Amino acid sequence: MAPCRVALWWLLGVLVAVRVVQGSVGILLPQDCSGFLYQSRPPAGLEHPTLRYICQRLVGQPRYLTLYDPTDHIPVYSAYTFKRSDGLKRADVPWMFEPQLSSLSDTGEMQPFPQTHLHHRFKDAQAVLEDYSNAVGFERGQLNPDEHQADPNDKAATYTLTNVVPQVSEFSTGPWDQQEHRIRRRLNNYCRGPAYIVTGVTTSNLAIRHRGSARVAVPTYLWSAYCCPNFDHNAPYMERAKFPAFAAHGLNQRDGPVTELSLQAVQEFFKSVTFVDKRFQIFQDDCVPPPSPLR
């Protein structure tokens, strides 16, 4: 089937499946997206009254959770559950936006960008397509990457600008892309239950500018961590040592390295080099499962 026809049928499916859902965006954690978090608890130490939780919904279903910064016009992090995947990416999905960041929406979910210039009505609270079309040297980097999902609609839901940050092109297609592949292979091979992933950013004062105004903050670092309590205890030692949780950070520069570290080491690193709260903890109890009750 021709790509344009596939895209048309997908868009028709979105429109048919739309239903009224309220409360997908707000300062409180949406309960219908708490299942994408280990122990249903969000990362601690990143809260701020200007940030908004987005329960990323598409075709009537929650797909993942994002903590979004309407001032910097980028996500602080996206939290999702990993799905066993062959790594293939979708190429037939239009970029989308979140109507509820700017006004009430009767759909409660992301929508494709309009073909007209109506996007100026919601650009105050989120990035729009022209922000990235004028950003030479940057890619639209997904925090919840397409290749970490399997269901076509889960993959499609990653193509919203509320899940995207400006990544330096060489970093995005090089070290960070390789890290996403590495995690996909590791979890495919050795995770035996749900795998919870949180991928986020830290920023400084750098931003993509448009017509003299700072529009989209450019991350200094990207970080990512996974939590898989149920894993293959017979895996090779070098892989088994990276369970139940492990993490990585990468410097968003042309030759920026990506370093894999323990979850605790990554948390301490960001406490020392950024302004995250000293309570910063990505997973509840650092992904250490509670002890089983005595029988």
Automatic annotation (TrEMBL):
Residues 60-276 form the DNA/RNA non-specific endonuclease/pyrophosphatase/phosphodiesterase domain. InterPro entries: DNA/RNA_non-sp_Endonuclease_sf, Endo_G_ENPP1-like_dom, ENDOD1, ENPP1-3/EXOG-like_nuc-like, His-Me_finger_sf. Pfam families: Endonuclease_NS. Residues 61-276 form the ENPP1-3/EXOG-like endonuclease/phosphodiesterase domain. Residues 1-23 form the signal peptide. SUPFAM superfamilies: His-Me finger endonucleases. Keywords: Signal. GO terms for molecular function: hydrolase activity; metal ion binding; nucleic acid binding. The keyword Nucleus does not apply. The keyword Lipid metabolism does not apply. This is Endonuclease domain-containing 1 protein. It comes from Aldrovandia affinis.
